[in-house]
Write a structure and sequence with these properties.
The protein is about 40% helix and about 15% strand. The protein has 10 helices and 9 strands. β2, α3 and β3 form a beta-alpha-beta unit. α1 crosses α7, α4 runs antiparallel to α5 and α9 packs antiparallel against α10. The structure holds xanthosine-5'-monophosphate.
């Protein structure tokens, strides 16, 4: 039997009861596989890695070491949430690495999007490797591989494929979610008690805000991006759009335009609001967002975010535009 093939008769996990049954089976399976040895996991805070972490905490407690690398390109409050959920609430063994300066220093002056992705992905592996070398007794690497990652080898995650750890750190893999579809992973996450903001999270690219702060990233523009994104998320949540709009975020292009404040001319950044609906991210449409809501968001961004003098709503479907700006 091919362990990477979902059996035809495998029951789809559609409710909490089936999720609880899956969790019990996997807890037993993982305990059998790892015994009393250590397991390492890169915990980004995305749905898949968070669900694996929660499952493994249930199965093996402190034998799991989660490493959360904050590359400085996370959304507002995201790393804090990872620490609060996993270290404070679940009592997981969590290593938090604030590598912001390391990443941002490497990215200074780098404008090419693919080069930026390479630097972010490569640096991520190096930071993770350094942390792995500090640990004793690790025999396994856990991964949040899910079934679509196996089936569509050219899926979204392939974007982020920057190679792996060096040979002497090639651990045996623990991949408890590898036969599950995304909706099943979310069911399992809910049954494990993860908060909805984590389980129902919209997709977020591996290189994070790095591909939404277009061109060469600067700290002031990155701050404007993070703040404007937080305002957008807050207002969309208040308007009940979470779960109704597939993905939404802001972009800060590397381009200044003329503005005026208190009668004085200035050159500040525009903020672009991007919201899309899609089934598989291969094509996407732009939803009709209530005009009053757009005005409210725009007003808040223009008053609360320093360095911004314009707000735009991106009306471009995919194709011809991609969902991300770079
Ligand atoms: P595009 O921009 O290609 O995006 O229409 C399709 C989906 O993929 C996400 N995306 C990425 N995800 N690493 C990722 O992990 C990346 O480099 C990357 N680029 C785009 C994007 O957010 C959307 O959901």
């Amino acid at each position: 039997m091919n362990p990477n093939k979902r059996p035809d008769d495998m029951v789809r996990i559609t409710n909490g009861e089936l999720a609880a049954k899956f969790i019990d089976e996997q807890v037993a399976e993982v305990r059998k596989q790892v015994g009393d040895r250590g397991v390492l996991l890169a915990l980004s805070g995305g749905v898949d890695s968070s669900v694996v972490a929660a499952l493994l905490v249930r199965a093996i407690g402190k034998q799991l070491v989660c490493v959360h690398v904050n590359h400085g390109l996370m959304r507002k409050g995201e790393s804090e949430q990872v620490v609060s959920v996993f270290r404070d609430q679940m009592k997981a063994n969590l290593v938090y690495v604030d590598a912001t300066d390391r990443f941002l220093d490497k990215l200074v002056g780098v404008a090419d999007p693919e080069q930026k992705r390479k630097i972010i992905g490569g640096e991520f592996i190096r930071v993770f490797e350094e942390e792995a070398r500090k640990l004793d007794g690790i025999a396994f690497l856990a991964q949040g591989t899910i079934y679509p990652d196996i089936v569509e080898s050219k899926g979204v995650k392939a974007h982020h494929n920057v190679g792996g750890l060096p040979d002497d750190l090639k651990f045996e893999l623990v991949e408890p979610l590898k036969l599950l579809f995304k909706d099943e992973v979310r069911q399992v996450g809910r049954a494990l008690g993860l908060p909805s903001e984590m389980v129902d999270r919209q997709p977020f690219p591996g290189p994070g805000l790095g591909v939404r702060c277009t061109g060469a990233i600067t700290r002031d523009r990155l701050a404007a991006l993070r703040e404007s994104d937080a305002i957008l998320r807050e207002e969309f949540a208040k308007a009940g759009l979470v779960g109704k709009v597939w993905q939404f975020f802001t972009v800060v292009p590397d381009y200044r335009s003329t503005g005026v404040r208190a009668g004085k001319r200035l050159f500040d950044w525009p903020v672009v609001i991007r919201a899309v609906n899609t089934v598989d991210a291969m094509s996407a449409t732009v939803p009709d967002i209530d005009w009053n809501l757009l005005h409210r968001i725009s007003g808040r961004i223009l008053t609360e975010v320093p360095g911004v003098c314009r707000v735009l709503y991106d009306l471009s479907p995919k194709e011809p535009a991609t969902i991300e700006w770079e």
